[in-house]
């Protein structure tokens, strides 16, 4: 729900931006394309600050309370959007919402990996994304058909629901052991066992957690060591590659500009209906991914999905190229919605969903508290870059060129995953580190 609250900030832009840039703007002022690009991208700037805050808060109040605190900027941003008539304040509000998203994304992979058994880590991450896609569907399904204010009011209910429900979720046993609350950690381990309580296994799990925490204390790591030590070099390469693939394959830009893209394509399928389709497709994709991830594995899913994403993007670019050359493409007017649907489906099955899971799996627990917030900041920076320059580059080079660039990144990313990324399905954190650092005696 926490990531869903952040996702809504980015999805809200898709049905709202065409209204804000129209002559009949709901805030009484028609915003410029430049202001529109800032509205679409400013949440990622807030994400940079949120990631820094999350990294600091987690060590002081624990992952649960840290994630819970994200509801404050989430809710505050929507209140500003509902009340303001100023484009600048909408940009500020998006940035405030991005702070909540930065907090969530910098902490949640750690939290999920600490409360979930290795056999279901993938499913937990994917089912979380399924809920994100469900919230996005609500926004995309209602957005074109309700008023601007009503949509913002609807979005403001998400952080309230999250605040109420997440309050009752257990704290990470790792954090409880770290602060000396061993009995509370035992209690939470029993609760997380969900009825399948085996006291012997609970004690073994607690012992493993204590050993891990002791290792973390003895091998405390700094950001400088993360960036320079040989032990972390492969993990850095893997995660950086996945994060760059997720950003430069067009994920942030297409998520924000879906409805604008369809409106400019003169598709036979209306923007409103296309918006509903774009909301439903990722839900179906996330459910399929949840079924396949712990059977097929991360590596194959990302590789195949990225290649099919490239097909959808090439087709999308070809349509806009033919449109720009004034060819009769009436018979292909179904292609814009179909191409984006193929892309959204495969991107959800592969890169967009699994990137956060891989970040939580690639680093040893002793460095994870630094690594995950660090890469959350990197993600915010590259996502902001892609989103901020998508519209200006589309105007200069043509929308088709940008789609073909995204497709090229998908192909290069698939090769990277196939040749470099190790499979982490069903492996413990120690097993993953041993595989990454075969020559390292420290592991």
TrEMBL record:
Span-the-membrane segments of this chain are 38-59, 66-84, 90-112, 124-142, 148-169, 236-254, 274-293, 300-322, 334-358, 370-390, 402-421
SUPFAM superfamilies noted in UniProt: MFS general substrate transporter
Kindly list the places in or outside the cell where this protein is found, as annotated in its UniProt entry: Cell membrane
Tell me the membrane topology, using the record's own terms. Multi-pass membrane protein
What is the official name of this protein in its record? Answer: Major facilitator superfamily (MFS) profile domain-containing protein
Which PANTHER family does the UniProt entry name for this protein? Answer: MAJOR FACILITATOR SUPERFAMILY (MFS) PROFILE DOMAIN-CONTAINING PROTEIN, PTHR48021
Q: What is the lineage of its organism?
A: Eukaryota, Metazoa, Ecdysozoa, Arthropoda, Hexapoda
Asked if the record carries the keyword Transferase, the reply is no
Query: In the record, what terms sit under GO molecular function?
Result: transmembrane transporter activity
Residues annotated as domain Major facilitator superfamily (MFS) profile: 1-425
Species of origin: Ignelater luminosus (Cucubano)
Cellular component annotations (GO), alphabetically ordered: plasma membrane
Q: Which residues form a coiled coil?
A: none
Q: Which UniProt keywords apply?
A: Cell membrane, Membrane, Sugar transport, Transmembrane, Transmembrane helix, Transport
């Amino acid at each position: 729900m926490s990531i869903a609250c952040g996702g809504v900030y980015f999805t809200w832009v898709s049905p709202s931006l065409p209204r804000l840039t129209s002559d009949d703007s709901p805030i009484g002022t028609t915003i410029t394309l430049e202001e529109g690009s800032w509205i679409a991208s400013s949440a990622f700037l807030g994400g940079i600050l949120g990631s820094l805050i999350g990294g600091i808060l987690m060590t002081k109040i624990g992952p649960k309370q840290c994630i819970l605190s994200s509801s404050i900027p989430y809710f505050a941003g929507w209140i500003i959007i509902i009340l303001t008539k100023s484009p600048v304040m909408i940009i500020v509000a998006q940035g405030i919402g991005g702070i909540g998203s930065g907090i969530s994304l910098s902490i949640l992979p750690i939290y999920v990996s600490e409360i979930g058994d290795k056999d279901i880590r993938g499913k937990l991450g994917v089912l979380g994304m399924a809920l994100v896609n469900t919230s996005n569907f609500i926004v995309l399904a209602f957005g074109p058909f309700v008023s601007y204010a009503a949509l913002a009011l609807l979005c403001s209910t998400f952080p309230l629901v999250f605040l109420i429900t997440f309050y009752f979720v257990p704290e990470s046993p790792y954090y409880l052991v770290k602060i000396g609350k061993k009995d509370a950690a035992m209690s939470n381990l029993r609760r997380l066992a969900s009825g399948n309580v085996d006291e012997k296994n609970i004690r073994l799990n607690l012992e493993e957690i204590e050993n891990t925490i002791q290792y973390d204390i003895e091998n405390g790591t700094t950001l400088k060591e993360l960036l320079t030590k040989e032990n972390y070099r492969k993990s850095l390469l893997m995660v950086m590659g996945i994060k760059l693939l997720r950003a430069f394959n067009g994920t942030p830009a297409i998520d924000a500009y879906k409805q604008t893209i369809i409106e400019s394509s003169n598709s036979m399928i209306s923007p409103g209906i296309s918006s509903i389709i774009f909301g439903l497709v990722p839900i179906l994709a996330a459910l399929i991914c949840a079924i396949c991830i712990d059977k097929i594995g991360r590596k194959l899913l990302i590789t195949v999905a990225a290649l099919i994403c490239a097909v959808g993007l090439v087709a999308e670019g070809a349509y806009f190229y033919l449109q720009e050359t004034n060819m009769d493409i009436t018979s292909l007017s179904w292609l814009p919605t179909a191409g984006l649907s193929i892309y959204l489906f495969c991107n959800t099955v592969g890169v967009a969903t699994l990137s956060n899971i891989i970040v939580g799996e690639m680093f040893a627990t002793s460095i994870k508290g630094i690594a995950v917030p660090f890469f959350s900041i990197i993600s915010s920076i590259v996502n902001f870059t892609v989103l901020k320059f998508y519209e200006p580059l589309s105007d200069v080079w043509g929308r088709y060129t940008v789609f073909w660039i995204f497709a090229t990144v998908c192909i290069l990313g698939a090769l990277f995953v196939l040749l470099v990324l190790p499979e982490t399905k069903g492996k413990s954190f120690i097993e993953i580190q041993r595989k990454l650092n075969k020559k390292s005696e420290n592991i």
